């Protein structure tokens, strides 16, 4: 069982990254691929899921995010893909707060999560999240990107959506958009990397 991988991020795709360790490239499914810097050495926390016809690695930026993923897997009706989709579409503090506060309406906003499953998440996890460090006083709410107006540059458009999905405010992303639009054309991953540097 793997705990984490220390390696270079050699490829970034819409739903996974490739981490090269010792000359071997590991495909790792992650919630927000563009949060990882391309061609840099990173520690990626991983959870290995083994099924009858499939072996997959799921990756996380922090050990706490991995722990939250593991807790979601303990919920009846939640598989690894559903758990990853939840992590991709919500700030973790908001998710923990929603579960603690019995907020079904927050949970049903996630892809594939209906009222029954949302209630099951609350039932199974409401009293089991005390070991997570996420700040329950953080703003609640689903982080959903809105479509920027960059029809002539789809790579930049995808990058801006990725930045919003990572939790950056739309007004901040709009400021970054103006700066990135002045750069020479590049791929989505490069735009995201440049945008993250501007937002820091």
TrEMBL record:
Domain of life the protein comes from: Bacteria
Q: One biological-process term from Gene Ontology?
A: DNA repair
The gene it comes from is ruvA
Protein name stated in the entry:
Holliday junction branch migration complex subunit RuvA
Per the record, its GO cellular-component terms are:
cytoplasm; Holliday junction helicase complex; Holliday junction resolvase complex
Where would I find the Helix-hairpin-helix DNA-binding motif class domain in this sequence? 70-89, 105-124
Q: Where is this region: Domain III?
A: 155-200
Q: Which GO terms describe its molecular function?
A: ATP binding; four-way junction DNA binding; four-way junction helicase activity; hydrolase activity
By sequence similarity, the record places it as follows: Belongs to the RuvA family.
